[in-house]
Amino acid sequence: MRATIKDVSALAQVSTKTVSRVLNKERYVSEDARQRVERAMADLNFRPSAAARTLAGKRSFQIALIYDNHSPHYIHQIQTGVWARCIEEGVRLLAQPSDAASTQLADEVGGLIDQTQVDGVILSSPVTDALAALDELERRGIPYVRISPGTEHGRSSSVSMDDVQAADDMTGHLIALGHRRIGFIIGHTNHTASDLRLFGYRRALDRAGIDFEPKYVRQGHFDFASGEAAADVLLDLPQPPTAIFASNDDMAAGVLTVAHRRGLSLPRDLSVAGFDDTALASQLWPPLTTVRQPTRELAYAAATLLFERQEDPVHRRLAHELVLRASTAAPAPE
Amino acid sequence: MRATIKDVSALAQVSTKTVSRVLNKERYVSEDARQRVERAMADLNFRPSAAARTLAGKRSFQIALIYDNHSPHYIHQIQTGVWARCIEEGVRLLAQPSDAASTQLADEVGGLIDQTQVDGVILSSPVTDALAALDELERRGIPYVRISPGTEHGRSSSVSMDDVQAADDMTGHLIALGHRRIGFIIGHTNHTASDLRLFGYRRALDRAGIDFEPKYVRQGHFDFASGEAAADVLLDLPQPPTAIFASNDDMAAGVLTVAHRRGLSLPRDLSVAGFDDTALASQLWPPLTTVRQPTRELAYAAATLLFERQEDPVHRRLAHELVLRASTAAPAPE
DNA sequence: GCGAGTTCTGACATCGCTGTCATACTAACA
DNA sequence: TGTTAGTATGACAGCGATGTCAGAACTCGC
């Protein structure tokens, strides 16, 4: 049978309460008692019951990660980052896919908390902006940290990257290569990052004195198919763009496919840039110039913030990076 | 404050035990009592404490998914499939990345179970073949189901696809197109599926009366880089293959990249086939002919088996499917 | 050598449920 | 009417930890 605190206390000749103190690294345990207890725990291969600790105490040693994102790479990196931090902290991770747009989301979150008594929650974009869910967390006084929130930034601790600057940098790179007609594919409307990236694109054009042309901008949804559709429209223009900057790698992959299908020679006939630097980016042909979003690190930092339990909201901004590969080059002379 | 069973019982004018009976859908509750209790639960927005239920009862309403796989797509599909079934069952899912080769794995699994008292465990390949971990599960009498196990098939319930037949089918397809020199890239040695796929490749060659040539077979590790490396070696042969069949899509992507880099025209100069049908396959150029592995369905079926709690091990085999895209074609005449 | 403060320890109630068991009620049959 | 089997219900203990609190055993300064 599983060993319990009682077994340990009997073996170590102390009260159960003292065992509990050792387990929780509380103060006021003599060196002697501590050693006897630790010895007994090891001998019995004692593992405390999470359920009992949760019921009796104020902690559950579990946190939840709530996400709604259809990019497996993104999710995977988020999970990996949070997970790594949880291991260090000795805390379990409950994965909670969800639908950010659902009216039941707040209720689900409430249920999750009431049932599991998680010690904290990490929200990844776009669930970060489901205000009703945030209300629910706050009503219950559950600490939470948001990854790349799009709104109400003051409301909680959060981690993020500078989407505007990143898109500005990438656009600037294309301009520096000599491009003047630069297409842009907007991301999913649910994600506030989409607006920010569009803004960065416009800011860079503006600074370079290039007119913003709405016809060069298409709406996408962060997926491959919408990238293909947008590319088809852009390349059918009488004066097609010489470069296309897609708000994420999946859509950029769609652009590459359309270009190949049309028999264009890349990057001579068309430069293509993405955003995220998912594994996909380096597996495409030609390898994709993109913005490296520090997803794993963001997730790790978010978990760190959660465990630090700051009084006031803290915001951490992590650096992005331009990853230049073979999908971008100077435009062919007209 | 959160409502407890006591609050519900007071409001419904029954004992706490009766509330518990309704909650657990036990027999022997009058229609009248049931309705009053349900009403009270709804009014109070009652959510049972998972910790208390676990401590008092024999179930924890949690299962764990243990995996060690570096393909985000694969993991994502596995998670999604298991998750979908958990939702239906009202059970929470604990995600547990791990290292299948680690000597501590069994200990970690033991700790997981002792601490969380999960009701069951789903293992995905290659953790399925960590025998020490299986021992640990059996010692504790925890039901578990394996997804695509490689060994000791009789030992537990499992779900799988027919890797041999799938690889045979794909190889057969290439032969039917007219290929005679067909390269093959083996998967990671940790995964038993790797051997099975190799065997399927050989079986198809054999049936077609084509000699098996070791020089056309290279070892890979299921990742992009190893696909590139293998392709470089194969294409440097004096008589290079006219088709390359990689044991997964990531490695096939590496082959495509090498082919592009060498200026080959695809699929005329080289046919390329993959395995898995991850999202990647359709995002590459040319779109990849591959085997659709029903990953999500396998995961869903595994969870279903787990909840069914069969007496004896049950095995379910799900069908694969050849997905023919533009990366394969008849070889150019010599 | 005494009070004050700090360190250490254990008794006991308690967290919110479920398992066990005793009991009461109902319908069906001899 | 009495017996039996099936149905319905609640009292109560207990799951395995932690929180609270009281008290004992050490320090220290004077």
CATH homolog superfamily of the largest domain in chain A: Response regulator
Helical/strand content category of chain A = alpha/beta
Q: Tell me the count of domains of chain A.
A: 3
Interface with most residues: A-B, 45 and 45 residues
Number of strands of chain A: 12
What's the assembly state of these chains? homodimer
CATH architecture descriptor of the largest domain in chain A: 3-Layer(aba) Sandwich
**Helix and strand run of chain A:** HHHHEHEHEHEEHEHEHEHEHEHEE
CATH-defined topology of the largest domain in chain A: Rossmann fold
- Round the Cα radius of gyration of chain A to an integer and report it: 25 Å
Shape of chain A: elongated
CATH C-level name of the largest domain in chain A:
Alpha Beta
| Low-confidence runs of chain A | none
Rounded mean pLDDT of chain A is 94
Strand proportion of chain A: 15-25%
Count of DSSP-assigned helices of chain A: 13
Please describe the biggest sheet of chain A, giving its number of strands, its sense, and whether it closes into a barrel.
6 strands, parallel
**Amount of helix of chain A:** 40-55%
In whole angstroms, the N-to-C terminal distance of chain A is 80 Å
Strand order of the largest sheet of chain A: 2-1-3-4-5-11
